[in-house]
Design goal:
Elements lengths: L18 E6 L12 H4 L3 H9 L1 E5 L17 H10 L6 H11 L6 H6 L5 E7 L8 H13 L5 E7 L9 H15 L3 E8 L12 H13 L3 E3 L2 H11 L11 E3 L10 E4 L8 H8 L15 E4 L24 H7 L4 E6 H10 L13 E6 L14 H14 L4 E6 L1 H4 L6 H24 L3 E5 L9 E3 L6 E5 L8 E6 L6 E2 L8 H8 L13 E2 L1
Parallel strand pairs: 1-12, 1-13, 3-4, 3-8, 4-5, 6-7, 8-9, 10-11, 10-12
Antiparallel strand pairs: 2-16, 5-7, 13-16, 14-15, 17-18
Length: 529
Amino acid sequence: MIDWTLQPGPTRGPTGSFLLFVVLDGVGVGPSDTANALWLAKTPTLDRLRKEGLYTELKAHGTAVGLPSDADMGNSEVGHNAIGAGRIFDQGAKRVAEAVQTGQIFEGQVWKDLIKTGSLHLIGLLSDGNVHSHESHLHALLRQARAAGLKNVRVHVLLDGRDVDDPSALLYVDRLETLLSELGEGYRIASGGGRMVTTMDRYQADWSMVERGWNAHVHSEARTFPSARAAIETYREESPGLSDQMIPPFVITPKTPMEDGDGVIFFNFRGDRALEITQAFEDDDFSAFDRGQRPDVRYAGMLQYDGDAQRPKHFLVAPPVIDRTLGEYLARNRVSQWACSETQKFGHMTYFWNGNRSEMFDPRYEHHHEIPSLPGPSNEHPEMKAWDITRATIKAIRSGQYRFLRINYANGDMVGHTGQLDAAIRAVETMDECLAELLAVVQEQQGCLLVTADHGNCDEMIVRDKKTGVLTDRPSTRHSLAPVPLYLMGTPGSWSLREGGGLANLAATVTELLGYQAPVGYEPSLLIR
């Protein structure tokens, strides 16, 4: 039986105050050079926070957030899971890798049912970024399908250029084609497209992405090519400089649309960009777009992406069970909470923060405020919705209704992924300007301000040579392995922050700042005397 009562602790912030928790998404602490948008930007507010407040740096990648190794980049999912849970849970990448290595993934009833279907279709992100997927997991599924005697297997490839170098799609396509040729004539690529225009939308920001993927994967309706390589090369020739993530959808001839009785696996392990295509396959009551004739297929995910909504119904590997989150403790102790971001990161401050839970724990003590994101590439409007988030947050603070407020500025990550350095600099400066407004109100209302990040990205906007560390002439669109900053303003001067912590230490830190003892089993608070 869990004791949900938070015990009183030494008050860290001003008595009876509120705490504002700000996530600067994708803002790591990188080298002070021309690849670092944070270093190049004018950031008087962050400079002030570091000078006048408390400061330390946190680990935000690899084993510190439950990933297989410290060579693995952090990401928003695992980062917000770790922040909200206060502990480190083995994440999807690690759980799937272990299930593949042990063969456990092929011992369950879901896999046994899938290999009894007609053609088997495998859809997912083709790269080794290990943020949403890993090509080795796909390769293992293909080899096991051949071992099980399947004759017709179709792969629908989503091209990355976001969690890996850009361009690099042909590297992964060629490796896949080599394997497919070894497995036999019935094993082939059937369709594909860049991840930011095809299939992998999230938080219902742009259902047309999913519709394009549905038409290509399910109905074989898109521009046709003799091979995936031909499709990629043609699109690049027609649009020089086209990013892998923006390559339009394509279908490989001869066309092989999905049919009744087929099996489908979405092999991404991360949930946010898998939920909408899952709904398209599973939901009988569906109105986001016209699906045409929906084939009667057996659909499964690599993991279950939403435990509350039970999506998908069938999955190959059990996801981590994240319990006793900070959000639930606060709700059960009647601590009023306010969470806000724009659509692109709204689920990170709600779903991922609360341990992959869609619903509130107690609506009486929680309020979720979503601000719709702008359409189009983020580099075209690097300010994104930061000012709207700021205005809404100031209003929430001044209402006096909330003791714990948390927000996410998406700019550093979303603009960082475009590889456009000038836009990333403007994104950082926008966040800094917004922080100035927030800091003024927090001090006016005698509150406490905590500013951190979930992983690095805009701190490394140019690709470095892996051996020498020298900057190349290629833009980087992926996350970095950098630690993230932690700024704290509004605590008594006798306190300081210890070094060597990670994102999982933040929940206990928040609990103490609100005047409670940290829950049993949480990673320790970063506050020291």
